[in-house]
Specification:
Helix content is 87%, strand content 0%. The protein has 209 residues and is mainly α. α1 packs antiparallel against α2.
Length: 209
């Protein structure tokens, strides 16, 4: 009966240890997945938001340059066309880079509108429609402001998600610490029980014979 009780206690202890180990392993796996997601969010913030913000800044500079050339009365048509063509060419060189980034549906729509304004500027420059160029430039700049706001909102969303993942990892880390404490407690219990079961041999009284 004592042997059965001994084996029963050992089985229970082993089961507790096994469950704790499985939970710790699953917790580590979940934390690794969360770390991967957080890393993806950080990369997205840099590659798809901060880098794109620099593209928008360059777009805005080119548009202001186009608008300034269209309004300069001291320049002849040939010089205006040459200056605007150079800015449009620079804009098109950025377009390819912009399209390589991850775009939201709303961002795609706004970017198509921006490209349409740039195409209009190119055509209006060929026809020497300088007043219309300033209007198209203003429209393109408004679209850039919308695109810039999208970058800010998306960046905030990615950052919030990354912070949420960090909080989850912290919670899982605290759970692991608690489980390790339980694991240590069970191990200590087993050691104490084992020590209690050590038999102390009492010397026999000397024989009277």
């Amino acid at each position: 009966m004592k042997d059965q009780q001994k084996y029963s206690n050992k089985t229970k202890a082993a089961l507790v240890l096994l469950i704790v180990m499985i939970i710790i392993l699953l917790s580590n796996f979940y934390r690794l997945q969360n770390s991967k997601k957080a890393n993806e969010d950080m990369n997205a913030i840099f590659n798809d938001r901060l880098v794109v913000a620099s593209y928008i800044f360059q777009y805005a500079n080119d548009l202001h340059s186009i608008k300034a050339k269209a309004l300069q009365t001291e320049l002849n048509d040939a010089k205006k066309k040459a200056g605007i063509a150079a800015s449009i060419q620079h804009i098109h060189s950025i377009d390819k880079l912009y399209l390589e980034t991850a775009l939201t549906p709303k961002e795609k729509t706004s970017f198509v509108s921006f490209l349409a304004s740039c195409s209009a500027i190119e055509l209006q420059s060929q026809n020497s429609n300088w007043i219309q160029i300033t209007q198209s430039s203003d429209q393109a700049l408004k679209t850039l402001k919308l695109l810039s706001q999208i970058q800010i909102n998306e960046g905030k969303a990615k950052l919030a998600n990354s912070n949420s993942i960090h909080m989850e990892n912290t919670t899982w880390g605290e759970l692991q610490i608690a489980l390790l404490i339980v694991l240590g407690g069970v191990a200590l219990y087993l050691l104490i029980v084992k020590q209690k079961k050590i038999k102390i041999k009492v010397p026999e009284s000397p024989s009277m014979n």
